[in-house]
Amino acid sequence: MIIGTVKGTIVSTRKCSNLIGFKLLLVEPYYGNKKNIFVAADSIGAGIGELVLVTTDETTQHALDKAAPIDAYIVGIVDAPPQTGK
Amino acid sequence: MIIGTVKGTIVSTRKCSNLIGFKLLLVEPYYGNKKNIFVAADSIGAGIGELVLVTTDETTQHALDKAAPIDAYIVGIVDAPPQTGK
Amino acid sequence: MIIGTVKGTIVSTRKCSNLIGFKLLLVEPYYGNKKNIFVAADSIGAGIGELVLVTTDETTQHALDKAAPIDAYIVGIVDAPPQTGK
Amino acid sequence: MIIGTVKGTIVSTRKCSNLIGFKLLLVEPYYGNKKNIFVAADSIGAGIGELVLVTTDETTQHALDKAAPIDAYIVGIVDAPPQTGK
Amino acid sequence: MIIGTVKGTIVSTRKCSNLIGFKLLLVEPYYGNKKNIFVAADSIGAGIGELVLVTTDETTQHALDKAAPIDAYIVGIVDAPPQTGK
């Protein structure tokens, strides 16, 4: 999974019917190239500035109640910035 | 999902039978390396210059009426350029 | 999907039985880093130098008559070099 | 699969219900760009500093008892640092 | 699929039960960034120094007798180094 920071929201009025009801958030990767911002669907209520855990590709479907064309899905809010020092 | 800008269309006369009927659009990533242009299928009528939301890999299938060899699919038109400032 | 140019063929005598019968072509990406040449299976008769449309990962299976361990599959021949101007 | 080094743990109190019970570890790639740290779920007890084998995307599901939104899963502990010299 | 050169083997004593019996090989990409070495499972007997054809992600499953958490699988030995001239 990817750790990212929520940077904003995306509004799409004309969209696939099975995307209706999902909040679409802009997520900036916490590690690696921060320029590779992507859009993740959310249903646990992540807010701007929060650190989130995102799962990708077909594995997103295992967190959904029914299938949807979503390749990045917020599956958790990270409690505290990760520590990788040792 | 990826946000991208529609830059053109692709015509392929000789193609898999289950690609027939899909519009094939060139999409330039809005974030990250703009040189990584790819082809996405569309059925919601995105036009050149419009900002679109693209889902990838097997998750595309959840937006299709029947299975097709499509690994990038336009699932929404983005209303306004994303704001990531804060 | 990826647009690429067919650059050559690959011969593999010792291979998985469900790869038998597929032509294996070397494909150079048309956009992005041209060094990332990959192998795509083909059954529509693409020739060296031709511009092709390639689908990837599990979506390849939707173009196959039966399942095969193929993660890149040529699903179309592109009629003319893409125009992305404007 | 990817070889990586376990660098830390991630705590997420608010998360998808089917992620409950998995340990979430920060993994640094052993090869390639070490900055691309990611989160992998673990159930075999990898510890910080250990070298692990990680499988990705939907293939993670074949190591799980039931489906979960996990796109990186630790499937083995590597006995000794890999030798690639020849 | 990816063409790669077998550079070594990986031993993992503590691993998922459905990885038992697979040989785990270190594979260096032939094209692109050679530093992105990865681990592929093998059951056709590839040896160190040999050029192999690797399929990735969920498509690996179509070469396996039963499902396994393997995202890179050697599906062929390449007869001769690829020629991409012209």
How many separate domains of chain A?
1
- Helix proportion of chain A: under 10%
Strand order of the largest sheet of chain A: 3-2-1-4-5
Proportion of residues in extended strands of chain A:
35-45%
Q: Whole-number radius of gyration of chain A?
A: 13 Å
Most extensive interface: pair and counts? B-C, 34 and 28 residues
Q: What's the CATH H-level superfamily name of chain A? A: EutN/Ccml
CA-to-CA gap between the ends of chain A?
A: 21 Å
Oligomer: homopentamer
User: Number of helical segments of chain A?
Assistant: 0
Secondary-structure element sequence of chain A? EEEEE
The unreliable regions of chain A are none
Average pLDDT metric of chain A? 95
Q: How would you describe the shape of chain A? A: globular
Overall structural class of chain A, as computed from helix and strand content, comes to mainly beta
Q: Quick one: how many beta strands of chain A?
A: 5
Name of the CATH class of chain A = Mainly Beta
Q: Strand count, sense and closure of the main sheet of chain A?
A: 5 strands, antiparallel
